[in-house]
Design brief:
Shape: globular
Order of helices and strands: EEEEEEHEE
Radius of gyration: 13 Å
CATH architecture: Sandwich
Number of helices: 1
Structural class: mainly beta
CATH class: Mainly Beta
Helix content: under 10%
Strand order of the largest sheet: 1-8-3-6
Distance between the termini: 8 Å
Largest sheet: 4 strands, antiparallel
């Protein structure tokens, strides 16, 4: 499998970890309900707010030392990103790509 899309239900009370279903190098978040994202749930400096309908991607540049190492950017089962809504709940579409 080279990609998969999942629906992630998030709320406004806690940062929801989004785990990669397999070793992958890229992900795309399509904000269908209003959400913020963080790379670390405890570090507000890593936060970015997405407008409803916006898309956020984390691509990989294949000429980096990291890519040349052969290690996946997002390991299977590990949190790739954390999501939270401003209020209520929302379903956010996340696509993982090898």
């Amino acid at each position: 499998m080279s990609w998969i899309s999942v629906d992630v239900v998030v709320n406004s009370t806690s940062w929801t970890p989004v785990a990669s279903p397999f070793d992958c190098d890229m992900l795309v978040i399509r904000n269908t309900g209003g959400a913020a994202l963080r790379y670390s749930p405890d570090d507000g400096a890593t936060e970015d707010v997405l407008d409803v309908g916006a898309q956020f991607s984390i691509p990989v540049h294949r000429l980096t030392n990291w890519w040349m190492s052969g290690q996946p950017r997002f390991a299977a089962g590990g949190p790739a990103v954390y999501l939270k809504t401003a209020s209520g709940t929302a379903t956010i579409k996340v696509t993982f790509l090898r």
